[in-house]
Specification:
Length: about 100
């Protein structure tokens, strides 16, 4: 779980102070920060999820454009089923 750091940020100049406000010359609002490692881990997870989504979208595009050849609908259907299973595995779906 992320640990937040409470600080005060001036609404005018943007300066940041912690653990309390300054002597009163600025108008402060309460803000929260997280550590750099936690932020970078969250960004890495977002990138991983986007890559999974993009891989699934590319596979779904193949399904959309698929047209079975005359007399080959069963084989095409089974191939699409196999590809759906692959996409579900990428997305973490159950089989």
């Amino acid at each position: 779980m992320s640990e937040y750091i409470q600080a005060w940020q001036c609404i005018g100049c943007g300066k940041i102070e912690a653990p309390q406000t300054c002597i009163g010359v600025c108008r402060d609002r309460k803000v929260y920060f997280i550590g750099r490692d936690e932020h970078e881990a969250a960004l890495a997870e977002i990138a991983r999820l986007r890559a999974q989504r993009d891989a699934a979208a590319a596979a779904l595009l193949r399904f959309e454009r698929a047209t079975p050849r005359e007399g080959e609908w069963q084989r095409s259907y089974e191939a699409l089923q196999a590809q759906v299973r692959e996409v579900r595995a990428v997305l973490g779906g159950e089989g």
